[in-house]
Inverse folding.
């Protein structure tokens, strides 16, 4: 049984957020590099890339969202953990750190990671909790990279789905 | 692709092999191996992908238990055989020395 997960973890909205950041980054980078100064056809890949990103972003945003509507802006309100985020003694910034790390991962894998993290941190003694959170945050990017690699491989070679 | 038997992987395998039929959850494994939970997680994930270990969510009502469900891990039949063979073939420090090494590098 998968523990209850915050509905804000919607894959489409996650993609949309990522697209917004990429678009903003691309626009800033383009301005900095002076796209208009590209000679010949060198501006074309930039223009195409940015157009694709904006279209993807717009489509994602239009199709995203839960039927219950948007609930909060950032999703970092500290209630992303199941059972209302009742991790006594866990500082808010640490909780936010875990949520942010989970968002680096593909949707279902990130949810599972966060749920499992929460499960362990709930039961661990307060003395060990800080070090445990640090270990999760430090190993998070590596886990995220492995998960994305696995997800990409699965797209290339479709196989049985992960149990989640 | 074969498993790379780092000290941490060996510790996790040893803990699971202690009683291959027993299911263990993250915190239990962490306490048994001396590894930080964040270190044990990617190892378990890799073992699961390799088919050495399978996992499941505990079937409990978190509200009734007043705690979140645990994720339990257990060696598969094939995984137990492979893990035993891999540990037997690995040149490594044993027992307490292994544990000390892992504790010194808990988040690696």
């Amino acid at each position: 049984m998968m523990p209850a997960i915050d509905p804000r973890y919607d894959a489409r909205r996650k993609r949309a957020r990522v697209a917004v950041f990429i678009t903003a980054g691309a626009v800033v980078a383009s301005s900095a590099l002076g796209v208009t100064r590209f000679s010949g056809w060198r501006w074309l890949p930039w223009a195409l890339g940015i157009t694709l990103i904006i279209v993807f972003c717009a489509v994602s945003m239009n199709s995203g969202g839960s039927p219950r509507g948007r609930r909060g802006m950032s999703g970092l309100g500290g209630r992303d953990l199941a059972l209302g985020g009742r991790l006594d003694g866990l500082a808010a910034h640490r909780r936010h750190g875990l949520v942010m790390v989970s968002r680096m991962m593909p949707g279902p894998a990130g949810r599972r990671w966060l749920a499992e993290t929460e499960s362990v941190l709930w039961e661990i003694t307060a003395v060990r909790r800080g070090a445990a959170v640090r270990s999760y945050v430090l190993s998070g990017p590596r886990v995220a990279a492995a998960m994305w690699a696995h997800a990409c491989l699965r797209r290339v070679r479709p196989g049985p789905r992960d149990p989640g | 692709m074969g498993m790379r038997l780092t000290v941490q992987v060996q510790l996790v395998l040893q803990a699971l092999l202690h009683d291959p039929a027993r299911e263990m959850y993250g915190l239990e494994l962490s306490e048994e191996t001396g590894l930080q939970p964040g270190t044990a997680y990617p190892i378990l994930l890799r073992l699961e992908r390799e088919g050495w270990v399978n996992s499941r969510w505990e079937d409990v009502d978190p509200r009734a238990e007043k705690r979140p469900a645990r994720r339990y891990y257990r060696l598969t039949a094939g995984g137990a055989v492979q893990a035993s063979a891999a540990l037997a073939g690995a040149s490594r420090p044993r027992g307490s020395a292994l544990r000390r090494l892992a504790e010194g590098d808990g988040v690696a």
The interface with chain A takes residues 25-27, 30, 36-39, 41-42, 45-46, 49, 55-60, 62-63, 67-71, 106-107 of chain B (CB under 8 Å). The helical segments of chain B are 7-18, 26-33, 37-49, 62-65, 77-89, 95-104. The longest strand of chain B covers residues 53-57. The domain at 7-99 of chain B is CATH 1.10.10.10 (Arc Repressor Mutant, subunit A).
